[in-house]
Write a structure and sequence with these properties.
about 650 residues, alpha+beta, 6-stranded antiparallel beta sheet
Length: about 650
Amino acid sequence: MCGIAGWFRRNGRPVARADIKAQCDAIAHRGPDDSGILTDGDFGFGMRRLSILDIAGGHQPMDTPDGRFAIVFNGEIFNHLEVREPLIASGYSFVTHSDTETILAAFSHWGNDAWARLEGMFAVAIWDRRRRSLTLARDPLGIKPLYISEQGGGLSFASELKALRVLPDHRFDVDQRAVHDFFSFGHVRRPRSIFHQVATLDPGHYLTFDAEGASRVGAYWRPRFHDGERLSVDQWSDTMRSMLSRTTARHMQADVPVAAFLSGGIDSSAILAAMTQATSQPIKAFTIGHPGSKIDETAAARLIANHLGCDHIVAPLEMADATEMLPQILSSYDEPFADMAAIPTWFASKLAAEHVKVVLCGEGGDELFAGYKRHRNARAIERLRPLLGPAGPLAAMIEGMPVSRSQRLNAVRQHALRFAEFIRLPDGYQQFFAATQISSRALRRQIYSPDFWQQQEGEDSYARLEQEYFPAAAVPKASALEQFLFADLTLNMPSAMLTRLDRASMAHSLEARVPFLSHKMVDWALTVPEDLKLRGRTGKLILRRAAAPWLPQEILSRPKQGFQIPMADWLRGRFGEFARETWQTSGAATAGYLDGSAVERLFREHQDGAADHSRMLYAITAFGIWWRGAQSAAPLASTIHAA
């Protein structure tokens, strides 16, 4: 695991070694164990390494024996020994045990056909000295980040945005659409970044950039639903258990100890249980607790850890800790990021990094096997729609519900309003956008400045999003639930979930691995019948059945809780004072995106219990922290104007 960065200026303009070093220094936290730089005229790249596998032999950049190709690589390839077999048969002689050399040899032999052969998480840059050509590639699910910027006739790239901002002759303007993404969904949606000049390379894609001409992008993997074998429920469950055991064991490959994150849920519990099947050594498991809160999962996690014979390490998370560390936590993302789970993930990573270099995590289980409440809602609405009749009258009745003096009734009203919005939408893709947003269109209408609203919002916004991300010709025909799962996997996962995990873990030089998101596991999961994922109100049915021999019964039937923090309560206390002060003093209040009086009204309504605005208020706080930090790095222009 490491961080990579580079710059291909082209046209004979030399790349200074000092510039590549500055890039690598900016991401030193991703790899404190080793570093390396290569410059070759108008090209240069480098890396910072966190040594996990073949500690002595995996130094980068690494060259092919003939000196034609050089590589820097972030990630791990879990099947790299298998990939070596045909290369050895063809006469290649390996000199290290490193997966870096495996990738380099595979690319030298197969070119861009190599990427589909790799099982793992990776962002790769390969320099072809003979053709003076750069190739970049990113893993199928987007576990590892890769930012690219084409400016001034050249191309720069990096694992994090901060390693681009140190380069000379680069411009970074705030992308207004990305700001709209953020206040709609709590993060910037791929392939955008917060800066107009920077994008992410999409998961499952590679890019080539030669000495002349534009960059060329190709796809080597896409998720596809298709029918699986005709099996009984027990046979499907046995296959799931076998697949999980095999994939988890592969993800434990390392020359250093491997541990796990543990909540009280089925995903992390199943991964931890599979780990204990693969080794006779006790596994360390790390849990973040919320003392005194109803969302505290420490007791459930302790039950699991004791049952599996694990070394369970718990740390409490208090509001004061989160308030103090929030600017540092959010600075890890280099752009506004309002996933509240980033806070406990950061603290869990800090805790784990005091003991180990590698953890396995349960990300991906919900997206593959229908674990979210929104998946149940999509299925329910699809089945109830014929009984509901025209959506308009029912939605209008719900929308007419008055605000109450009761905080509980107001919470019911908010859920009912979301349901009213849901039933108006025709398919799973549009429902996905409605369900994953942190603010309704009506709320954005209240808080956006008039010019920003006119620039970014319009009629049929969900239909336009569906056309942008899931045009009919490019996506599989599927049920509403399958559409939801496809959107979660291909959009929310790389844009939010994996971004959260990568930055939080790498901020502490910790490698986080996600066995559920092996593309071979994903390919198989997309063949599992829908009824084995969601049956009645029980999500992840097949995973629960597969893990049943390993875990206590009370864990198997425990409802999903998620990696939460009590933000609604915090915002009614001292954290709310911190949030309001951040908004008022960061400069974000005068940036032109939001209406100041409307934001103040949100703070008052939340404080009074008239509504739960915790997601939007946290987003406003996160934006203020980002705005202040980004302005200190280099002044940002905010050019809001009517379209």
